[in-house]
Amino acid sequence: MAMEDKRWWLWKPPKEAKYVGKYVPRRDAAGKASGWHKYINDLELPGMLYAKPLRSPYTNCIIKRMDTSRAEKIPGVIAVIRWDDPWFKDKWPVCFWENAPLYSPRLRSTGALPYIMDRAWWYGQPVGAIVIAETEESCDEALKILSKDTEWEELPFCLDWEESEKCEFPIRPGFEKILPEAKGNVEFSPLYWEFGDVEKGFQEADKIVECLVRWRDPNTWATASAWTAIAHWTGNILKLWTDTESSTNARSQLHDILGISMDSIEIESPYGTCEFGGMSGVLRPVIATLAGILSYRFKRPVKVIDEHSRWEGCEHVLGTYKFKVGFKKDGTITAVDIKTIAVEPGPFPKMNADQVSKLFEGSKIPNIRLHARYPMINTGQRQCTKHGAPACLVHYVVINLVADALGMDPTEVALKNDGWEGHDIRWVYENIAKKHGFQTERWSLKECIEIGKKLIDWDEKWHPPGTKILPNGKYHGIAFGYTIAWSHTSNIGVRYALESDPHPRIYMSLCSDGSIKAISYRADTGVGVDTSYSMILADEIGVPLEQIYIDVFSMKEFRLSPMAGSLGTSINTPLLVYAARKMKSKILEEVTRQIDRFKGKSPEKLDIKDGVIFEKENPENKMTLSEAAFIMGAGISVEVSLEELFKAQPPPSPQPCMVRQVTFAEVEVDPETGQVDVTHVVRVYDCGKVINLGAVRGQLYPHWGIGRGLTEAIYHDPLTGITLNDSFAQYPILLMNDIKKIDIEFVETGLAYGAYGSCGCSEAGAAAPTPIIPLAVYNAIGKWIDDWPVTPDRILKALGKA
User: Fold this and answer.
1) How many CB atoms lie under 10 A from the CB of residue 34?
2) Which CATH code, of 1.10.1670.10, 3.30.365.10, 1.10.287.110, 3.30.470.20, is assigned to 40-55+61-154+225-310?
3) Is 619 strand, coil or helix?
4) Long-range pairs for 633-638 at CB < 8 Å and ≥24 separation?
5) What is the structure's pLDDT at 105?
6) For residue 506, how many other CB atoms are within 10 A of its CB?
7) 388-489+655-798: which CATH number, 1.10.10.60, 1.20.272.10, 3.60.15.10, 3.30.365.10?
8) Spatial distance between the Cα atoms of 669 and 474, rounded to a whole number of angstroms
């Protein structure tokens, strides 16, 4: 299979692809539904011990005294390990709770905070000790007693980020060691970021508008089960069972802490649950590291269970956003100034302007400025999970502010300002995209908007805010927003992937029965990795899906890039296609050498389809791959690395974002109760190229994002700071029937930098729909609500009824 053009973003799927772009039942569906497939929590090993941390009963506290004697006497308890245990005190995994684990000895020496210490600054934080026991029940009983036998000093706390900077007490003592630049209770130095000349842009504007949004209630992430990891030290091999996609992080920490060779650390990843965004690199690898340390110490298998982790954190959309936008009378935006007090600084606070990143990458606005501050508060670690909500919020609000001020259709304002980094989208096509080989006849945003408008009947239903009352007495609201699609570029992914150890690579071999075995580790957190990647391999090689076996669950020397930031698509698909095409070429070369009926033929004259090798000009001359493999025996294999691919074709630069997504929502608001009924949500997404239709459709269902803007919030007791609704019985997630109608459609422009011109999508179901319901409610009642989510009490207050 010739690959003269090495530009993977221009590669096309095989003409008669049976799988790519289609709906294919998940290969693991039956096993999951029947309970046959095992998740990490299902695994049990002979002689296994259990480990659970003590949890802080207070919002901000320090341990004054701890008596472990009664807890140690509980039947089944092996040990109670205190934070200051002589053997462990220098071996605890370290966490930089607000951003990421610190892995190397150099970073450990900066004073990074250990997973267990005598200090806690949020309710439920692991603190003081870990109990090791023969059963979970023994752990639980010992932890109850240990909490009672610990003398706690309660400290003052603050849950309001707008007030925390003024607090005279330290919110989180100890952070000055790792954040010497922090001033008082400000977590990071303020970020000033400016593109263009914002003041000049305001001078050129015909009109300037301002508004405020406070995302006041801590949105949370929540998983269906406790975070768990298992380790077994056998004397020369440390075996880990962990469902984290960032298992290489655990490997690195264990190597640093215990001095074990990374080659001696083997990892298996059973099926995992709900690990998206920043959490992939924070606590789960730490829990796996802790399991490895405990097994090394006690010479038995150990399962670490972190139950409260489901509810510890708050989503990074939290914060205050002050908008100032200047624009011309025709809707052209000349300047945007955003001031934020943000609770989560993004992964690289000093390197990017996270809150305005999507506005910057998805518009031609020539002047953008961000002033962001990052205060500390006494809630759990703040991490993205299917993140991007702050940037989507900014993008949606800016477009709708201008449209509202001018009485314009917001879809027209969006089209007028579409672009990339200050450039019009047509400039991008002419000056960059065409040079990279893209076909530029299509306009992603225009196509997405046209499809979405038809689905929701926008031209008939759109109206100015507060002007439509339905026959049932409810206010009708409708809203639109757009932003960029995720992970359109390989730039970040290349850096991330090549700095990891080992570099992403894949091994493929032809088995004697004609099946293709591929080995490359990648934890599956529920997005159908095995199925999607097998679909690509099957189509590219030309065999039925059932002849592809891909081992993504065991980490050996081969691994794929983790999905963080949806990078799984933009990084792994080029590698998979490249490997599959090399494998197919090698099979055909060997066939012409070893199989009599094909001897003397050029490999280019042969092809494989449906598992049958045949001569293109004489299709009757054929043989099944199974028959050929039996004759040729073993030995046909390829090994391909991402490094090899990028040496053959360096990634182009720059890689502008040309793919878009849009959200439309329709609501009815009851003016007597403040109840919001979501009657219709439309999501249109340009994937560049759909790989797995079922997987991408499932990830675009908007319940998570709609819930963030409407119902989902964690509430704390203002007197104690204790979380009041830390269970699914009390946390108001949306169910399938809570949105009356959902339409999801796709556009495939091929204007992205993954294989086949594809991009990622996994954050689109949560982040992009997050701001849409508050905007739809505003369109319904004609009153702007500063505080989001837009709960009934806030709606009634805006209407003057509360």
Assistant:
1) 8
2) 3.30.365.10
3) strand
4) 633/512, 634/509, 634/510, 634/511, 634/512, 636/509, 636/510, 636/586, 636/587, 636/590, 637/507, 637/508, 637/509, 637/510, 637/586, 638/507, 638/508, 638/579, 638/582, 638/583, 638/586
5) 42
6) 28
7) 3.30.365.10
8) 5
C-alpha radius of gyration, the chain, whole number? 28
* Token digits of residue 399: 């477009």
Provide, for the chain, the percentages of residues in helix, strand and coil under a 3-state DSSP scheme, each rounded to the nearest 5: 35, 25, 40
Sequence ranges of the chain with CATH classification 3.30.365.10:
40-55+61-154+225-310, 388-489+655-798, 491-648
Q: What is the pTM of this model?
A: 0.93
DSSP at 317: T
User: Nearest CA to 732 among 222, 313, 278, 226?
Assistant: 222
What is the CB neighbour count within 10 angstroms for residue 88? 18
Question: For residue range 284-332, what is the model confidence (pLDDT) as tens digits?
Answer: 788 899 999 999 999 999 999 988 655 555 556 788 999 999 999 999 9
Residue 336 tokens read as 């945007």
Dihedral over Cα of 251, 252, 255, 257: its sign: negative
Cβ(649)–Cβ(6) below 8 Å: yes
**CA-angle at 384, arms to 383 and 390, nearest 5°:** 120
* pLDDT tens string 135-144: 999 999 999 9
Q: In degrees, to the nearest 5, what angle opens at C-alpha 278 toward C-alphas 274 and 280?
A: 50
CATH number for 491-648 (one of 3.40.50.2300, 3.40.50.300, 3.40.50.10310, 3.30.365.10): it is 3.30.365.10
